[in-house]
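Q: I have 331 residues here and want to know how they pack in 3D. Can you give me a structure?
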Amino acid sequence: MHGFVVSALPNWSENLDLVAKPTSRKRLLPNSRDTLFVPSGRQPYGHVTELRMGLEAQIGHQFSEHLPFGNISHAWVLQIEQEDLFFFLLSSPGQTHVLSVPQSPDGDSSHIQVIEPVGLDLKHSTLAATMINDHYILQITESGLFAYRSPQDSLLVTKWPSESRATAAAIEDTIPCAVIASRKNEHSAIELLKIDEDEDDGTVSSSPIGKPVQIDAEIISVAIYRTSFLVFVIAGTSDGTLHIFRVSPQNGLELYLEHDISRDPNNLEALNACEDILILGEQVRPEGPVDLVVLCGLRGGSVYALELQVKQDCKFDMFSCYFLVGQLTLI
């Protein structure tokens, strides 16, 4: 197979990451394409750029400068089918903003507005959010776990104890379950919650699976992933260590292995802290292992990759790990 250059994006940061992702499980329009999220600009003034419908996407809407969107750290696009809307959840330090975007095939952006939906936590940073079964939003913030179905039917699921603060979270929406990393009295822990919906009255509740696992260093990133054989969780800590857990239906998180990210003697140890984790590329072979790539965005600006094999007996083989450096070209 041979590739050829289609286009290159200039003025990118030194170390890059990207992901192509559809806005929902079902494409809205026959000719719609996946969205490409890429970093752009140079440190320390980088941004995340969304490229839609190819590299020559048009800006759909611009908000006035007085709106507090200058320090957005994470964003989620959630389709609210019963209201023919998209919700854009924008997380910034200490608060969350929500945009209401109509599902308009003609590109009309006149009705995009900032809203404050009752039932979502807007007073804290959002750590994870997703749609569950296409009919309610699950939001995890520093203060708790919340569910939102409609303005008339908003449900508070769980609030963390006052002395505890969530530092990272991830959701597996097909089960569904959530993994929460928290800090309490200078101690960090990670736990697994099962999300349940009562079919009779529609209420949503959460319950722990197993006991929380204590970790010495602060947990700053988590990811959860489901393969053909098992569900596993990866947690990154402030000391540059990755903790890989298998999920047991009875015992919750079972620590399988710990991996220290290779340290560059020219860098401070803190620069190897894993700020973000992305799990890519399940390749299922007949009667063979599942191959996965785990990408870790490090505090120092580099991307660290691990290649994992998940065998049918639910054991891991880590057969290579390396730093990703250099300039990226689209082909």
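Q: Anything worth noting?
A: The CA atoms of residues 103 and 205 lie 30 Å apart. Confidence is low (pLDDT under 50) at residues 10-16, 24-31, 325-331.
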